[in-house]
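Interim report, section 4.2 (structural modelling).
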Amino acid sequence: MQKSKRAVVLLSGGLDSSTTLAIARHAGFEIYALSFRYGQRHAAELDAAKRIAAKFGVAEHVISTIDLRAFGGSALTDSAIEVPKHRELAAMAEGIPVTYVPARNTVFLSFALAWCEVLGAFDIFIGVNALDYSGYPDCRPEYVSAFEKMSNLATKAGVEGAARFTIHAPLIELSKSEIIRRGVELGVDYGLTVTCYDPDATGAACGACDACLLRLKGFAENAIRDPARYRSSAA
Amino acid sequence: MQKSKRAVVLLSGGLDSSTTLAIARHAGFEIYALSFRYGQRHAAELDAAKRIAAKFGVAEHVISTIDLRAFGGSALTDSAIEVPKHRELAAMAEGIPVTYVPARNTVFLSFALAWCEVLGAFDIFIGVNALDYSGYPDCRPEYVSAFEKMSNLATKAGVEGAARFTIHAPLIELSKSEIIRRGVELGVDYGLTVTCYDPDATGAACGACDACLLRLKGFAENAIRDPARYRSSAA
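Predicted structure of the assembly:
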């Protein structure tokens, strides 16, 4: 049997990254999952990442600790900024959300690149999405392609011409509803994933932040009940 | 008086980054110095970074902890790999040294970019050098330029067109001897800097690793005595 190619998959424990992992596995890659403890307000996401990684039998799951809080600047890491609730989809599409974490995907992809070099891997999977998160600059195809180009100049393999790095962003052109449909086909158990920006201490979702609203809409469009646990007060 | 523009300067505490900081200051920037605790074998470098930052009166000095050791793969972070000693310059120029840390500059620049976004800064200074370290892929002009391009697509400011990021690499075409000459002109106290890949517990340099040999050659070419402290056993 041919040895599988290795891929590093960025895994937050959310719906998008879990679907991305399933897609990478389905494509035949041996999976090295990478998560970050980056000053998130809550640990529920990382617990979810561990469950997903275990469920899919990844070759290795590394949780790397980095401190982006030292720089501040996002509602997801800075407790002084409030997570917005019950916004209309139109409002979400306007401007860059306060939940944007400065240069987050660039930092995450850089770590993935470092791990690739050590593993001898040339494939990185990231679950960015340009449609639902149009406000995030580092979720656009032109960004992903610029990172890929930079990777091939940054690395030993790039210099030696051994191989080319590919940054796979299989969800980039999909709607949330299409992502969920694909994930269900591939057997992703969405009950294990955490999407909410503001879960309670038990990990139950709020049902009202941008991420929850988009997720619920995606399930509704597939006429599937979202298996995630919501707070009893949630919509 | 006009308010100074802010710049993030990557500061390792070595000769190159300290000279780079002096150049950024001389150019009129208000300096935000950024160092990393990234699993170096020794703390001497970071102590040096603190001394340099204090000496130059930077606006802020952040030391960010990241764990690249989780991935292994370099003599500088993996204690199983030995630091090579007494190599000829010709041997140094061949291939990529074992002291190369996977994707290190990409990781460092990503953090600098995150801090820039929070500070509203658009200038990053990095002391990479393409001549003496031709073996490091992420020290080449084409790499720096690719990172700059990616930065302008990765960020809020890039999307909103508020300003353009510039990655300054003022040493990139200089020889070690030219770097030292420039630093001396700008008043850098090289006695504060640490260059050695393998200092002892007191911070004294070995005088035999690639970094020490290049440094000593640079001082010799300027007919200046290197004020760094070398071990008594050192060449």
